[in-house]
Amino acid sequence: MNERATFGAELRRRRKAAGLSLTELAARTHYSKGYLSKVETGLSAPNAALAALCETELGAEGELKPLLPGEPARRRTRPDVRPSGLPPATSSFTGRADELRAIRAALEADGGVCVVSGMGGVGKTELAVRCAHRLESGFADGCLFIDLRDESGEPAAVHDRLLRVLGVPADRVPADPADRAALYRSRLRGRSLLLVLDNAVSAAQVRPLLPAEPKCRVLITSRSRLSALDDAVHVSLAMLPLDAAVELFTTVTGVPAGTAVTRVVQRCARLPLAIRIAAARLRAHPAWDVTELDRRLADETTRLGELDDGERSLAAAFRLSVHQLSAAESRLFGLLTVHPGTDVDIHTASALSSLSFRETDRLLDRLHEAHLLTQPEAGRYGFHDLLRAFATEFVSTDAEDGMKAFSRLAAFAVRTAAQADKELTPHRFVPEIDFAPGLPEPARLDDGEMAMAWFRTEWPGLVALCRAARDRGEHERCWQLAFFLRDYFFVAKLWDPWMETHRWARASAAVIGDLWALATTTANLGVAHVDRGDLDEASACYGEALALFRRIGDGHGETTTLAHSGWAEHYRGDHEGALRDLRQAHASYVRGGNRRNAAITERGIALVLTALGQAAEAAALANRTLAVFDELRLDLDAAMALNCLGWAWYNAERHDLAAPAYRAAADRAEACGSRYETARAYVGLGNVAAAEGSAQMAAELWNRADEIHPDLDRVMVGEARARRV
């Protein structure tokens, strides 16, 4: 038995003893099933990398490597030297199992061209080299590795280098580019060769280098997606999974995994190059521990500077990608950092750039193609965290252009938020707001459902923009954004951002001396406090707002604040005081013809009457407000009125009337997206079931309410107070 058969026989024996099929061993080692079968039967020579992997997977440390054969006496198809120009594979490679399988499958398929693309530093070359080392033994004529960044970029120059490696004397390389390409294709005819083209810039650069020989395969890496290579299989690299990122850091440094290591790799955004640089810096400073490294990486404004080990720099890696951009692409890339949110849609990017939708869409697509932007969903684009820091610090943006871009952005956000708010609360009083000509049209928001969907997507960015407007001195836009966010925050019960935006808005209104904006914002901040149950804070806000409205002679604002104050008094338990203020506000709204606010206030009166034991009168009022809300198409207010009606009938012990009111409230609240009012209705239904002796039904309804919106405030929600468990 010769050496090769001995290795194969031992591999087969140990594989079967481990209970593994060839398919399972192939999946674990990332070698093809066909190749492993040939190794076991002695038809293909094993290599050291395969032996090491098989020893690990089969628990046979040191048992297979001694059986490796000597240099195989391969029968050559031609006398040329078999090239093997692969760089060494790193020993600290982690993760990427799915990507390795995808690349191998692509290179084993007909066509055999695979493009591995990703942002700078994501590990494209490491992955390609590792995969090539595992596949190289399956190519009779070896492997060629070409770093296209080292070439002039012209295919003719690459052809020259490849021809020399393939054994063509320098004086036999044609001067004419077309002749070189023809000779290159000719020299590959009949060969079985793996060609690795690293750092490709474009499809046009790569296309002339693709062999016509079907037995050759090509593996390409690029910072661009090279989408124009239609016949290639495209594998896009994302960040490492967190566990693989931690493993990479611990493998390089020898530091055990822990909370500090996890924070470090997260600050490196799970980008392999950043993790390797951070690990190298830790190794270079024996006095440091992981906590010190974490501290140095904590500051986002200096993080890129810390990710430089003297030989490798994350910023330098990113520059290579940016240098490939056109002037228009680079300008938009820089301007996108003006937006403080995590991602933008095409309409917002158009407002930033002052370009048409079509041109903006084209530029965004190009930046995405270059892996400089992410695309979390169709029509939206965002930054990788470290690329945002790089673009902010290193991509040149004209200061005046940036200031104008932010002004356009803030104005566009206010304009769109105003449109969305109008769909949510069509009869709300809105001050007149001016916009400069030339702003792009907002996205279409034809109804309340579309407006809610828009707010759900955009509110985090709008909150960040509100703060940025305050910091940049765009004080009018700051309070206007807060004003138009209020009703969505009320529906969604997002109390923290509601209060944050209104505190910033109050500061901005005070800076510019706009007393109406200051009074309105303060009153709306009071509504947030009431809604969350902070009654003392709410009363303080209402007192301040009331004084401001009286000072400027705004009767409508004074009435609205008085009504809000009445709600707070009711929740505090002063029902008589609440009834007085609410009735005064209601009379003022009726005199002014404000049907919406009059109905909302009357709904409050119904709640107060219920607390005062006048449930039948309260039910009649709630019914009357429901008719107004339906006529005005105020679905959320209608759901609240139905809950109010259910609460009144429950307190009157008319469970036969309370239950249908609560069921209708649940349906209406769910339809308009209010989880809070939906949960309130189910708690009410549970209370009715409990009162009628159906304990199991009550428990199921209360559990359903908890799933929709847990922990309804007992101060604010009567149904929650009445709930028995």
The CATH architecture of the domain at 76-236 is: 3-Layer(aba) Sandwich
The biggest sheet, with number of strands, parallel, antiparallel or mixed sense and barrel status, is: 5 strands, parallel
Unreliably modeled segments: 1-5, 72-81
> Which percent range fits the helix content?
55-70%
Structure summary, number of beta strands: 8
- By CATH, the topology of the domain at 76-236 is Rossmann fold
Mean pLDDT: 90
Helix-strand category: mainly alpha
Beginning-to-end CA distance, first to last residue: 79 Å
As a percent range, the share of strand residues is: 5-15%
Short characterization:
By secondary structure, this protein is mostly helical. It contains 34 helices and 8 strands.
Task: Tell me about this structure.
It is a single chain. The chain is mostly helical and 725 residues long. Among the domains are: 1-73, Orthogonal Bundle (434 Repressor (Amino-terminal Domain)); 76-236, Rossmann fold, CATH 3.40.50.300; 242-312; 317-397, Arc Repressor Mutant, subunit A, CATH 1.10.10.10; 610-722, Tetratricopeptide repeat domain (Serine Threonine Protein Phosphatase 5, Tetratricopeptide repeat). The protein is built from 34 helices and eight strands. Strands 2-3-4-1-5 form a five-stranded parallel beta sheet, sandwiched between helices. Helix 9 links the parallel strand 3 and strand 4. Helix 21 (448-472) runs antiparallel to helix 22. The N and C termini lie far apart (79 Å). Residues 1-5 and 72-81 have low confidence and may be disordered.
